[in-house]
Design goal:
The complex is a heterodimer.
Chain A: E1 3-5, E2 10-14, E3 19-21, E4 24-26, E5 33-38, E6 44-50, E7 56-58, E8 64-68, E9 73-78, E10 87-95, E11 100-103, E12 107-112
Parallel strand pairs in A: 2-12
Antiparallel strand pairs in A: 1-4, 3-9, 5-6, 5-10, 7-8, 8-9, 10-11, 10-12
Chain B: E1 5-7, E2 10-13, E3 19-24, E4 31-38, E5 42-50, E6 53-57, E7 64-68, E8 74-78, E9 87-94, E10 104-105, E11 109-113
Parallel strand pairs in B: 2-11
Antiparallel strand pairs in B: 1-3, 3-8, 4-5, 4-9, 5-6, 7-8, 9-10, 9-11
Classes of the chains: A mainly beta, B mainly beta.
């Protein structure tokens, strides 16, 4: 069955520090992968997506993610975190044929000044 | 360009009542999706509408239903509300139904069942 695992429920980093949020997926074919961000009380905003091609994808707000097929991972990174990055981050895999996204449980990011 | 819009922002109902949630997709988008984000259960796929037809539904009981109108806007109806239906309901839209058509989300409707 298709699934997404985000091993870290909560992460706290200092402002200016680097960030890596982990995501592992289970999918039989080549996956379409996404990272979304949700600020408190808000909907989901698309940060970036991977369909094919270059395994390092750039997104908005200075985020990037690397697709590693051998590790079934799609980790999200940012070199220098800003206080405004505090939010919940969701990794998702697209379930082809059903047109639905399967989400991980999310990682809540806190940023210390 | 306006994003996905949802109404109302908040909805409070009592157990047994019916709730109606509305969604307007991004202009030009024909597919609309509904997801439920309940505490402790994460984000779960509810329904997918495309070109006025229900194309797929998640593992939810039949009292969750909806429709898509000719202008591609959509309505989610939840009948016989139960306490566990309390959640944030997110609507998303995509350009079409191709695998590479990205889903863009609205701000959600917070449903509280008392």
């Amino acid at each position: 069955a298709q699934s997404v695992t985000q091993p870290d429920i909560h992460i706290t980093v200092s402002e200016g520090a680097s960030l890596e949020l982990r995501c592992n997926y289970s999918y039989g074919a080549t996956p379409y992968l996404f990272w979304y961000v949700q600020s408190p009380g808000q909907g989901l905003q698309l940060l970036l997506k991977y369909f094919s091609g270059d395994t390092l994808v750039q997104g908005i707000k200075g985020f990037e993610a690397e697709f590693k097929r051998s590790q079934s991972s799609f980790n999200l990174r940012k070199p220098s975190v800003h206080w405004s990055d505090a939010a919940e981050y969701f990794c998702a895999v697209y379930s082809g044929g059903y047109n639905k996204l399967i989400f991980g449980a999310g990682t809540r990011l806190a940023v210390h000044p | 360009e306006a994003g996905v819009t949802q109404s109302p922002t908040h909805l409070i109902k009592t157990r047994g009542q019916q709730a109606t949630l509305r969604c307007s997709p991004i202009s030009g988008h024909t597919s609309v999706y509904w997801y439920q984000q309940a505490l402790g259960l994460g984000l779960q796929f509810l329904l997918w509408y495309d070109e006025g037809e229900e194309r797929n539904r998640g593992n939810f009981p039949p009292r969750f239903s909806g429709r898509q109108f000719p202008n591609y806007s959509s309505e989610l109806n939840v009948n016989a509300l139960e306490l566990e239906d309390s959640a944030l309901y997110l609507c998303a839209s995509s350009l079409g139904r191709a695998d590479t058509d990205t889903q863009y989300f609205g701000p959600g409707t917070r449903l509280t069942v008392l």
